[in-house]
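Box S1 | Example of a co-folding query
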Amino acid sequence: MNYPKKLVLLGATGSIGESTLKVIRKHPDKIQVVGISANQQVDKLLNIAEEFKVPHACLSSEKGSSPTFPSFTELKRGEESLQELASLVDADIVVIAVVGAAGLIPTLAALKSGKDVVLANKESLVIGGEMVTKTAKKYGARIIPADSEHNGIFQCIQGQPQQSIESIILTASGGPFRDLPIDQLQQVTIEQTLCHPNWSMGKKITVDSATMANKGLELIEARWLFNLEPKQLEVVIHPPSIVHAIVRFIDGCCLAQMTPPSMTFAMQNAILFPERHQGVESSIDFSQPLDLSFSPPSMDRYPCLRLAQESMDEGYSAPLVFNASNEIAVDAFLRNRIGFLDIPRIIENTLNLSESISTESIEDLLTLDSETRRIAATQIDLLA
Ligand code: NDP
Ligand code: MG
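Box S1 (continued) | Returned holo structure for magnesium ion
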């Protein structure tokens, strides 16, 4: 391996961005940051540029002030600049740690330039899974999964033929409301929802974890990453988030991947793959009692998971509609416009009002995405 590998980090100012930077601080001889992006947190972006002496930076939002960046950093603005950064000639690896559907275009740009793409952004695969995987194949680019469950599966299947996989099992903590009486769910506050029992993450994915829309998105993500049928994908509740994923092989043997609940493990594995080096944090302490309990999720408690599974089964554009309406509903919840249980209501109504169609081009996808967001927003106006 030629070190240092040159890495572009899109979404550097977020939670995954922070985990990635922890890995890079630990292995400065192996990774050099050559590009970073944020949407609007310009001061945080500036600090990262200074600390890591980054030559290229991008703010995707056109709004807001532009402080002076160090002379060694070229700052660009706008979505086109984000695409440019994703395909930077200098880079070997592009980490996609942008949140939401905004991850799709830079993911495609990085794949088209043949880079190794370390993909944390799951929404891009949910809305454009077929296009993303075909693009990777066409341009000979690798997608290395960084979502903890998917990175776990990726580790378990190395060297195993595709036909040997019976199914994969994604674990879910069940979020902060796992044991709350269902009739109290509508009243939960934003603060309670953002208080995840195990993981520290961005706001959107933290709400998605409480509704388990996140696990639904991850099922669809896994389907595309590992080329599996929906019936080969299972979900179990595992409250401590120590076992991230299990692969069940056709001979009945199951391989599981385990770490403490922190994203530095998956990010390091993905960035330095196939090599292993000392980790950023301590591993599991087996001298202490360990909770390895598993139980099936209740679809009454987690309607978002049911809706995601139904969208995956329906295929075509249904997962895109699920994702776009979820993004709009989560945003409305975080603005205190709707209650917690209105999130699945908005998604279900939007799915019912949308036809599942075949989307051939990126333009088709983006048009449908905007149309779905408009329908979901109208549903919110009716509820709010
Ligand atoms: P955060 O909200 O913490 O960070 C998001 C990052 O994306 C920030 O750098 C943000 O910039 C940038 N961003 C926001 N909106 C846009 C946009 N429209 N265009 C370009 N960039 C944008 O999210 P997370 O780090 O939690 O999650 C990132 C992705 O990784 C998500 O898809 C999530 O599902 C996935 N993931 C996250 C995990 C986690 O532990 N956090 C675990 C597994 C997967 P700014 O700071 O300026 O707003
Ligand atoms: Mg995950």
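The pocket of magnesium ion (ligand 2) is lined by residues 147-149, 218 (CB under 6 Å). Residues 5-146 form a domain with the Rossmann fold fold (CATH 3.40.50.720).
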